[in-house]
Amino acid sequence: MGLFRKRERPGDILGVTPIDNGFNLVSEPSIENSSSYVYVPPVDTREAKCPNCEGILKKVPGSKTKCPLCGKFMLVRTDPHTRTRVVVTEDGAEQIDDEIARVNGTWEDRLKEKQKIAKAKAELTKKFGGVEPSKEDLEWNLAIKDSMEYAKKHWWSSYALNQSKKAGMLHKRGKPKLALNLYLQVAYLEHNGVQESEADAASRKMMAEIGFKEFDPDKANLPPYSINDVKALIKELDLNLDTVESIFITEMSKVKIGKLPISPAESWEYIRTLL
Question: In degrees rounded to 5, what are phi and psi of residue 77?
Fold first, then answer.
């Protein structure tokens, strides 16, 4: 973060006395009533040392990476108060991200997300007989919940983006065929012009009366942004387009999220020209 409207300490934002939580919070003069923006360049204090095991590294980490010595993740963050660039553990990064959210006014949204994650983690732990879920299992569970929420609220653009996110997870897990099915679905939805509708039925009805369409091919994202992912997986799986056509028609015929204006067969004729 470089620009601050007002560099507040956590206590200023939350209405409590700030506690030194390891960030070396600095006291700064109030710039209340000042309309000017102040840029404070970060100071790079990163070291070639793992924050987990304190082992000496061959080079300074530049982004999230695993320590070759202990196998734990190291992350790079800029402390919003001291403006120092540091290498931290996953827990340390979480704390700094919390502080950034408090400073830039997005703490309430971040807190809701953290509560949602905690709830999903508790549910999965109970389901797994007391064993905490892996990070991958937790991410997948949250993505499934998001899909259900977006479909319920008719937020179709968000739904398509989330399907793309799930496809990436499947590919990372070594399931390229399932990933391809989802990327094809995303391309199909994009070709149908998915739009963000309203969450409640009354508002959706009102919008429809003034001409709003939940699926509007005239506003489609063409070419679909997911095409490059489809191309990559076709090459990886060594598939010919006739095989992909069969997959597309079969899988897209199963998509039941609304009255899509373009049929799978019609959509394939277009999408094929992009592959």
Answer: -140, 160
How far is Cα of residue 175 from the mean position of the Cα atoms in its chain?
20
DSSP class of residue 218?
Answer: G
Measure Cα distances from 135 to 57, 71, 117, 121 in Å.
26, 15, 11, 9
Counted residue by residue, the chain has a size of: 275
Q: Are residues 81 and 160 in the same domain?
A: no
Q: How far apart are CA 50 and CA 156, in angstroms?
A: 43
Tokens representing 115 are 């509560």
148 belongs to a structural domain = no
Does a structural domain hold residue 123? Answer: no
Q: 44 φ, ψ to 5°?
A: -80, 110
Q: Which two tokens stand for residue 211?
A: 């001409």
Residues 90 and 19 in one domain: yes
Residue 137 lies in a domain: no
Q: What's the pLDDT tens digit per position in 31-41?
A: 344 456 677 78
Q: What is the pTM of this model?
A: 0.73
Look up residue 145 and give its two tokens. Answer: 């919940």
- Alpha-carbon distance of 195 to 212, in angstroms, equals 9
Query: Using CA atoms, how far apart are residues 153 and 131, in angstroms rounded to an integer?
Result: 33
pLDDT per position as a tens digit, 77-130:
999 999 999 999 999 999 999 999 999 999 999 999 999 999 999 999 999 999
Give the range of the structural domain holding residue 159, as residue numbers without chain letter.
154-272
